Amino acid sequence: MNKLVFLVMMLFGIFLRADEAKLPEDSIYNIKSNWSNQNGDAITLDSLRGQNVIMTMVYTGCAHACPMTIAKVQEIEKALVQADIKNYKLVLASFDSVKDTPRVLKDYMKKRKISEDHWVFLSTAKDSVARELAVSLGISYKAIGDGDFSHSNVISYLDSRGVVKSKIESLTADITPLVASVKKEGL
């Protein structure tokens, strides 16, 4: 009898774990595209699961808005550190699928003195992959010639299951509500 109870409990536990692995429909981690990080390692978005993620899209050839976006993400990081939140990633995906190779992203990080402790830069060789993520994050962009892009500046907070819980849609926006969302959802 004890073996039967044990077996039933084991099966029930397996089913619970399988259900926990299921992602909500609106999770960005449902996107199955392949990316490369700044070190050239293959990565899927799902590999970020289980962490607080601040995510946006930029391109390294941008002279104005993207450096300001990165500065805004750095401001968010300072607030996370002050709130004693340790389980986070700051993910910047490039929408320049032609120029922003892993090597370019790595050099860009070195130039801007961005640490790999919590920061991840992503690149893809396919515009369709970048476009899919952009649409999911509510970011619009368009190539305007000479390697430049017109683009929106959205920074999103994704919870541990990849669901957008908060976002700022302007580089002048107050980060307080986004950081409060991380604290509320935080791990």
Distance between the termini: 40 Å
Measured by DSSP, the beta-strand proportion falls in 15-25%
User: Biggest sheet, open or closed, and with what strands and sense?
Assistant: 7 strands, mixed
- Average residue-wise pLDDT: 89
Percent of residues in helices: 25-40%
CATH superfamily assignment?
Answer: Glutaredoxin
Q: Give me the secondary-structure category.
A: alpha+beta
What would your notes on this structure say?
There is one protein chain. The strands form two sheets. The protein has a seven-stranded mixed β-sheet with strand order 2-1-5-4-3-8-9, with helices on both faces. A two-stranded antiparallel ribbon has the order 6-7. It contains five helices and nine strands. It has one domain: Glutaredoxin. The protein is of the alpha+beta class and 187 residues long.
